[in-house]
Amino acid sequence: MSKKRYSLLALVLVIAVLLAACAPATPAAAPTAAPTQAPAGPSGDLEIFSWWTAGGEAQGLEAMLKVFQAQYPNVNVINATVAGGAGVNARAVLATRMQGGKPPGAFQVHAGHELIDTYAVSGQMEPITFLYEEEGWLDLYPQDLIKILSYNGEIWSVPVNIHRANVMWYNKAVFADNNLQPPKTMDEFFTVAEKLKAAGIIPLALGESWTEVHLFETVLLGTLGPDKYIGLWAGTTDWKSAEVTKALENYDRMLNYVNEDFAALSWDQATQLVIDGTAAMNVMGDWAEGYFKSKGWTPGVEFGWAPSPGSAGAFDALSDSFGLPKNAPNRDAVLAWLKICGSQAGQDAFNPIKGSIPARTDGDRSLYDVYLQSAMDDFASNKIVPSLYHGAAAAPSWLQAITEAVGLFIANRDVAVFQEALVAACATAGVCK
Ligand code: GAL
User: Fold this and answer.
1) Tens of pLDDT along 318-353?
2) Is 287 close to ligand 1, i.e. is its CB under 6 Å away?
3) Which atom of ligand 1 is nearest to the CA of 320?
4) 397 and 342 in one domain?
5) Residue nearest atom 1 in ligand 1 by C-alpha distance
6) DSSP state of 31
7) Which one, of 333, 390, 344, 342, lies nearest residue 106 by Cα?
């Protein structure tokens, strides 16, 4: 450094020191002008527990986490996932943790029986009606949804989405190459399936145990129609009836058209068979839409959709939600997360990727693709029925009994024994006489 530049620097430093010494001391808590930054908000770790690990669902969660982190940058999110579609593994891990007094901050739980019977009735959650009041949500959610989130006059979780369970996805090229139209009825399904089989294509992709129950509920719906399907869970449709026998026969017949290795495949591996063109169709909830898109497929271009056979006009619905466990670690951060889950910004970031529609009624339709817009329309106009496998229709113990009955049926294919087991399961659930 030259001598001249050195003395200039020294002069600047001296002036700076003098100015600092002359400046009046600012009181520590001086009122500040209008804040230019958001208040610090909650900090520390926040564990968010879910089973969203597959293509589409994992990215959907990430998108919502981004919205959260932008608003609450001081919270360190621990994205805790337990793989296994429909929560087959996560739900067991969660139940053990809750019973052992080690709840995560927030956890994914299906609206309806899964939430209420498992966690609300047993006193493991804090009610969050106050949050609905504070955030003005009471008028922003469908009243029927609020009803199944409620127990004892309180609301117990925040729904992030609505999924549709009764969708049949199909590979458009396979259908076009074989000159086929997507089947609308059970009979059309069997005709199309026969042609595909003859062409050496697996008609229907299927996966592990829970996906078999998922298919089963859509066959009950497609055979009985929505009112009688609802009656199954309310004790007004007779499980011994000839119509139920017909549904079980349809299910039995359908199983003749699935991939042999179904028991070994996860839901996304089964969906992948449709992408590969090895299989033509898949009956799966619309998280499969998220999966297709995560693999670069575009709705209406490579894949098409239709209500599962026989179920047009009915929307087999379920909803993912998050609640506030009692003694949740970092309660403030959990509440902040719940606010994002219930916000328009959070839901509109999550759902277009997840393959679901917003639970709020004011989602921005323009952000949703052609399939999701059609799901919004159907949700508004169809008869809504509760999903069995995804926590809405029946108590968890009843679902467990049906899952076991389906498992046995897949092994022995005896319709009469299957029906007896279903009749007994309804009686044990205390719903049928
Ligand atoms: C459902 C859940 C969906 C999706 C799917 C596959 O039970 O509601 O959000 O995650 O399982 O994992």
Assistant:
1) 999 999 999 999 999 999 999 999 999 999 999 999
2) yes
3) 8
4) no
5) 86
6) P
7) 333
Which residues are within 8 A (CB) of 63 and not within 5 positions of it... i.e. 6 or more apart? 349, 350, 353
Nearest atom in ligand 1 to 110's CA: 8
pTM: 0.91
Nearest CA to ligand 1 atom 11: 86
Q: Which pair of tokens denotes residue 332?
A: 């403030």
In a domain, 189, yes or no: yes
Do the domain assignments include residue 354? yes
Report d(CA 415, CA 7) in Å as an integer: 99
Q: Residue 369's domain is classified under what CATH number?
A: 3.40.190.10
Q: How many domains does the chain fold into?
A: 2
Do 99 and 188 lie in one domain? The reply is no
Which residue's C-alpha comes closest to atom 5 of ligand 1? 86
Asked whether 339 lines ligand 1 (CB < 6 A), one says no
Calculate mean pLDDT across residues 282-297. 98
Instruction: Give the distance (Å) from ligand 1 centre to CA of residue 14.
Output: 67
**Which residue range is the domain that position 204 belongs to?**
164-316+391-428
377 and 396 share one domain: no
In the predicted model, what is the mean pLDDT of the chain?
93
184 & 331 share domain: no
Shared domain check, 291 and 410: yes
Q: Say yes or no: CB of residue 391 within 6 Å of ligand 1.
A: no
- State whether the beta carbon of 208 lies less than 6 angstroms from ligand 1: no
**Looking at ligand 1, which residue's alpha carbon is closest to its atom 7?**
86
Residues ≥6 apart with Cβ < 8 Å to 281: 168, 169, 170, 171, 182, 203, 204, 205, 274
From ligand 1's centre to the CA of 111, what distance in Å? 12
- Residue 269, pLDDT score: 98
